[in-house]
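Re: the 171-residue chain
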Amino acid sequence: MLVCVGSTNGVKVEAVREALMEVLPNAEVKTLSVDSEVSPQPWCHETYSGARNRALKSLQEGCDVGVGIEGGVCVERNRVLAFAVIYAVGRDGTENFSTSPWFVLPPSLASKLFEGKELGEATDLVYGRVGSKYHKGAVGILSKVIDRRRLYKDAVILALYPFYNREIGER
């Protein structure tokens, strides 16, 4: 099975590779640079669209399954939360999605988002980092334990279950 990831971001690709090692260990992974067709910092439901767009565009490259991962933010209960959506689309028309855990962003980061900054850029500005979205990300800096790869991995497994557990997934 060829699984294409609609991103060249190493953190996203490694999360997919690690997830596949657990559920489809013989799968091959191909990375593709695709446009999510959403804003640089997706908000709320736009995040789902971005992940699905990435998965669908990846599928067009001759793959069996396309995977799209899109990080987003949303306001809930007067707080700004960050999360990711993982979409998996199969050549046979099967579609599924999952989300990562959501986590509250501190006001210093939230204010930068309201100024129009993307979360990675805001994280770099607030915490004096460079390219944090390609490494630990905001979640890693805030939690000191959970990096972006770990945040995505289990959600990737959940998005992929119809592709590796077809008996259960079709009921």
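Helices lie at 10-23, 45-59, 107-114, 119-127, 137-143, 148-164, 166-169.
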